[in-house]
Amino acid sequence: MTNERRISKLYLMVHPTPRTEEKINVFFPRWESFFEEAARDPKAAVCVLSNSPPRMAELSATIERLFGDRCFLDTRDWTDATKLKYVDHVCRTFGGHGKRCNAYGLWTDRLALMWAEGLKADMASRGFVWSPDELQVCGFGSQWGGCMTKYVSLMSAYLGVAKTPEILPELCRDAGYGLKGEYLEKKLLDRHVWAFLFRTDKGIHFAHFMESLRPVWERPKVVTIAADPKDYHFNVQAANNQAMFYAGDRDPIVFGEGCATFAVMDGYFSPNVTVIAPESEYEAFRAAMFAAQVGDADPHAYQQVTFGSFPHQQQVELGFFH
Questions:
Q1: Left, alpha or beta for 88 (phi > 0: left; psi -120 to 50: alpha)?
Q2: Residue 65, C-beta contacts closer than 8 angstroms, at least 6 positions apart
Q3: Phi, psi at residue 27, to the nearest 5°?
Q4: Measured between alpha carbons, how far is residue 115 from residues 48, 151, 319 in Å?
Q5: Residue 136 gets which letter from DSSP?
Q6: Phi then psi for 79, rounded to 5 degrees?
Q7: String of b and e for 244-276 (b: at least 16 CB within 10 Å)?
């Protein structure tokens, strides 16, 4: 096997095609320009998970033209061997998460495993070799905090990669969702968790914390930041806008002495938390967010939580963060 058939970088593009011409006109040229450069590396490949808008076929054709046989579209393996792996995933998840195991997460996991096993099989059938210890996954697409997040994390886990997958917000058409904001910068924290910083057009800064590598059966993660209740506003959404959580009266932000602890978004199990700094200077906010500590969550902690905006100081105006 020649070195030219070795894959060391994998771009994982999840459900990318926008549903509006406005975003298509922005992101199709951006993605094409990016892939023109990326495809020059003979050890780079791309895996595309399609979505339904009509111009998805146009985008797929562009990527295939640039990458040739290093482009893998909608890979799939649902053989008996993969089904047995899925049974093991289900058993391990119930064993770790108990009776409140997230059904949406197990449904998601089936797809992630099927696509990851299909990718492995397709790469092998085309004569490519790759090492899980060397492979660098780079993920982007659509549904920030939803499909993009969960499939990058789960598929990377089932590819067995050791390196933290890199999330590319500049190539995500809805980075920062559910607020509209300009992406500023990111930092890799411990245990494959990324911190991302954004700014709204009103100059308000906000942060997200995102999972990038975790199998379905492992415990979800939390981050702890230095904060008092008066410091920030928090917005909490159900992962991927799913209604499969039990809405209740538990506050999803847990305050300790001088600190706040909350979920790392994973796209299927944990609520999506946005930290909003209405008054902080950027450098102070940046330092606080990038100093976040990563820990394990109680798998039952996200049942009966309340979703919505949590101003732990004065009430916010509805248009304040647009």
A1: alpha
A2: none
A3: -90, -30
A4: 10, 9, 40
A5: E
A6: -75, 170
A7: ebeeeeeebbeeeeeebbbbbbbbbbbbbbbbb
H or E element that contains 32: helix 21-38
Give, in order, the Cα–Cα distances in Å from 108 to each of 63, 156, 268, 269. 25, 14, 7, 10
Give the H/E segment covering residue 95: helix 80-97
**Which of 262, 212, 270, 214 lies closest to 238, judged by CA?**
270
What single-letter DSSP state applies at residue 315? P
Q: Which residue is listed with tokens 């494959």?
A: 192
Closest CA to 134 of 37, 294, 39, 3: 3
pLDDT surpassing 80 at residue 90: yes
Each residue's pLDDT tens digit, 226-260:
998 888 999 888 776 554 444 445 567 888 899 99
Written as six digits, the tokens of 34 are 């990016």
How many CB atoms neighbour CB 12 within 10 A?
26
Nearest to 151 by CA among 101, 105, 91, 97: 105
CB 253 within 8 A of CB 232: no
Give the global pTM: 0.90
Token code pair at residue 121: 């099989």
Task: Give me 78's structure tokens.
Answer: 């649902």
> Residue 287 has which token pair?
């330092």
**What CA–CA distances, in Å, run from 32 to 8, 64, 231?**
21, 11, 41
Residues in contact with 20: Cβ distance below 8 Å, sequence separation at least 6, in sequence order: none
